[in-house]
Design goal:
172 residues; alpha/beta; 56% helix; 13% strand; globular
Length: 172
């Protein structure tokens, strides 16, 4: 695989993009950035506060700016769960290698219940967590799959990272 290509991790909130991304970056001896963290740095407040004040469209604009900055750097990028909603973002993702962390509704709901991090992961629908995860995943899964060069099923962190490394090697 081209060491200068950016590796983008996509999937719903709670699928493990940050954990897998950091571990993968260590294995590849490269940097890791998270688009949500870039947005927080740029706007000077938590995402939930920004969305409450400016709305989702404004947040998506900041998210696109963060993705553009991250795509300019070789390394691993953890992308916000909704990054695939905009065609322009999907075009940016196509400039690198895209790994989709495929995760079940049950696993996502359990992870988000244990660690809701509501400042970083505001509700998208106002529904119960399980209903929201189910609805959002049903809408976005086709976009994640369409963007993905590699689909990584859920599993223990080490197993997901090992599979990612093997699939990246296969693409080389």
């Amino acid at each position: 695989m081209d060491a200068k290509k950016t590796i983008f991790l996509i999937g719903p909130r709670g699928c493990g993009k940050t954990s897998v991304g950091r571990a993968l970056a260590r294995c590849l001896d490269c940097g890791f950035v998270d688009t949500d963290h870039l947005v927080v740095e740029a706007v000077g407040c938590e995402i939930a506060d920004y969305v409450a004040e400016h709305g989702w469209d404004a947040f998506r604009d900041r998210e696109t700016e963060a993705l553009k900055r991250a795509a300019a750097l070789p390394g691993v990028v953890g992308c916000g769960g909704g990054i695939v909603l905009r065609e322009g973002n999907r075009a940016i993702l196509r400039t690198g290698v895209v790994l989709y962390l495929q995760t079940s509704v049950e696993t996502l709901t359990a992870r988000l219940t244990r660690n809701p991090n509501e400042a970083q992961r505001p509700s998208l629908t106002g529904k119960s967590l399980a209903d929201e995860v189910r609805e959002v995943l049903a809408a976005r899964a086709p976009l994640y799959e369409a963007c993905a060069d590699i689909v990584l099923p859920e599993g223990p962190l080490d197993a997901v990272v090992d599979r990612a490394l093997g699939e990246l090697e296969r693409l080389a």
